[in-house]
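Both lines are given unchanged directly below:

***
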Amino acid sequence: MRNFLLNILRRSKYRFSVILRELVQYSELLERSFLLEQNIQLDPSAKIFPEAKVRNLAENPNLIRVNKNSVIRGELLVFAHNGDIDIGADCYIGEGAKIWSSSSIRIGNRVLISHNVNIHDTNSHSLDPILRHQHFKAIMTSGHLRENVMDICAKPIVIEDDVWIGFNSTILKGVKIGKGAIIAAGSVVTQDVPELTIVAGNPARVVKYLCK
């Protein structure tokens, strides 16, 4: 009888711990959904995976838009003073990818962005060492500034339809990548990429023209 009661208690304790864990997970999902609604315009058919991050420092959900059937596993960031990210339909943003904007980043439809890709339309810091240090101190003490008082250069990025960006690549400010282009893994793109080409290297150069 004693063993029977102990078994009941053990099973009850186990069920309670399972229920408690499920309640915590559900609460976290609700909190995440609420935070996403405050930070992003997300099409109902789009999906943001648990490992993804959305950092809208401007606190304006209109500045980050993800369209239908797109999948986000990386990080989307808009700076406090400015920025705009628009991701088209049927896109994939891989795990560890970082898309940071303080100007404008436009991504077309059916774009594949592999893991650990960096897309930055800004230098993030001033080229002047004194201003750079002041900027760093300001971020550490007060957070990101809501005005670009440090003369930080930023230029729009445009990535057209059907582009494929290989893992560990970097796309820098002011670049336009043409339709159907392929960026080889590990490339650093510092200038415009013609449509239907493959580019590779640091800095990236055309290595092949694709057939239309």
Q: What stands out?
A: The longest strand covers residues 205-209. The domain at 42-209 is CATH 2.160.10.10 (UDP N-Acetylglucosamine Acyltransferase; domain 1). The chain has a mean pLDDT of 84. The chain is about 25% helix and 25% strand.
